[in-house]
Amino acid sequence: MREEIEEAYGLEFPGLLFIDDLDDAIIGVGQSTAQVPTVAYSAEKILECLVKQGMGFHEAREFMEYNIEGAFAGDHTPLIIDDLF
Fold first, then answer.
1. pLDDT band at 34 (very low <50, low <70, confident <90, very high)
2. What are the extents of the domains in the chain?
3. C-alpha separations of 27 from 3, 12, 41 in Å
4. What is the pTM of this model?
5. Which terminus of the chain has fewer CB atoms gathered within 10 Å of its CB, N or C?
């Protein structure tokens, strides 16, 4: 899905950001409060990717909360959709 997003949005929005090594967790594109497109990720799929990369579930959850959900990289900061319920 990353390639499709880059193709559809890349020319108009070259600042679009992706999270390294988590392409399998991409679920689409949303809109930030700055009214620009941002890549949307599934929280559940992020955890699955991190566990596949060798983390335990609790370690992956803590890593996601601190390093991914807590990160801000400007207007194109990726959205994390909480679909764990």
1. confident
2. 2-81
3. 13, 20, 5
4. 0.91
5. C
